[in-house]
Amino acid sequence: GENVEQHPSTLSVQEGDSAVIKCTYSDSASNYFPWYKQELGKGPQLIIDIRSNVGEKKDQRIAVTLNKTAKHFSLHITETQPEDSAVYFCATEGDTGNQFYFGTGTSLTVIP
Amino acid sequence: DTGVSQDPRHKITKRGQNVTFRCDPISEHNRLYWYRQTLGQGPEFLTYFQNEAQLEKSRLLSDRFSAERPKGSFSTLEIQRTEQGDSAMYLCASSPSGYTQYFGPGTRLTVL
Q1: Which residues of A touch B2 (CB under 8 A)?
Q2: DSSP string covering chain A, please?
Q3: Do the strands B5-7 and B19-24 form a parallel or antiparallel pair, or are they unpaired?
Q4: Are the Cβ atoms of A46 and B100 closer than 8 angstroms?
Q5: Which residues of B touch A99 (CB under 8 A)?
Q6: Which residue ranges in chain B fall short of pLDDT 70?
Q7: A106, pLDDT greater than 90
Q8: Three-state DSSP class for residue B86
Q9: b/e per residue, B36-60, with b = 16+ CB within 10 A?
Q10: What are phi and psi of B70, to 5 degrees?
Q11: Tens digit of pLDDT for each residue in B52-83?
Q12: In angstroms, what CA-CA distances link A94 with A34, A99, A102, A110, B61?
C-alpha cells in the first residue's frame, strides 16, 4: 500500500508567524492530496486539497504546494492564529482511488 | 458539524463482546468510508461503500470486522469478539465525489 510520511510531528510557532508541514508519498499514481485539520474530540475536517494537474493552490492564509516528480507536498499556513492550533494530517489516494492513506499527523501549537 | 453523525459517541465493552456502530452520512452522498484512528496516528482506512455495494476492504482488516450499508443510506460497522487491540476511535466519512470527505465525530471504543 501507499506509504505517507509527515514531518514534523510537533510544531510550535508564535502568533503571526508561518507554519510549514511536509509530506512525502510513495505511489506515483496518486493524483489527489488533501489536508485535514483535527481538533480535540472531533473528526478530521478538510481544509484544502490539490490535484496532480496543478502545482500550487491557495485559500486565504492556507496554501498547498505539490511536487509530483519528487513525490512530496506541503501545507503552508501564514499569519498563524491561536485557533489554528490543532493536529493536521496529509493524505493521498491509493491506487484504486477508493482508499485514502493518511500521514501520522502534526500537532501545531500557535503561541499567543 | 459536517452533517455526518455517528452513534454511539462512546462505547465501553468487555473483551469478547460484540459491538455495533452506526453512521448516518450526508443524505445525498453515495460514497461512505470507515476508518480507525489510534492515539497519535492518522486515520487508517477500513472499508469503502458506493451506494450499498462494499467495493473495497483493507487487506489488514480482520474477519471479525464486518460492515453493511443497506439501501445505500446509513452504515453499520460490527466488531465480533472484541480484543483490547480494537480500542480506538472509529470514524465514518461520506463523499459526493470520491474526493472531498466529510467526517463524523467518531465513536470511541474502549475494550476492557
Answers
A1: 43, 45
A2: ---EEEE-SEEEEETTS-EEEEEEES-TT--EEEEEEE-TTS--EEEEEEETT-SEEEETTEEEEEETTTTEEEEEE-S--GGG-EEEEEEEE-TTSS-EEE---EEEEEE-
A3: antiparallel
A4: yes
A5: 45, 48, 56, 58
A6: none
A7: yes
A8: helix
A9: bbeeeebbbbbbbbbeeebebbbee
A10: -60, 135
A11: 999 999 887 889 999 999 988 999 999 999 99
A12: 13, 5, 10, 32, 16
3-state secondary structure of B109: strand
Q: Residue A1 pLDDT more than 80?
A: no
Contact of A64 with A35, CB cutoff 8 Å? yes
Average of per-residue pLDDT across A37-53: 92
Residue A43 to residue B2, Cβ atoms within 8 A? yes
Put simply, the answer to whether B44 touches A102 (Cβ < 8 Å) is yes
- The cell numbers describing B65, all together, are 470486522
Per-residue pLDDT averaged across A84-98, rounded? 90
B91: chain A residues, CB-CB within 8 Å: 43-44
Give the Cα separation of A106 and A40 in Å (integer): 13
**Band of pLDDT at residue A97, cut at 50, 70 and 90:** confident
For residue B47, give the C-alpha cell. 472499508
Span A58-73, average pLDDT: 94
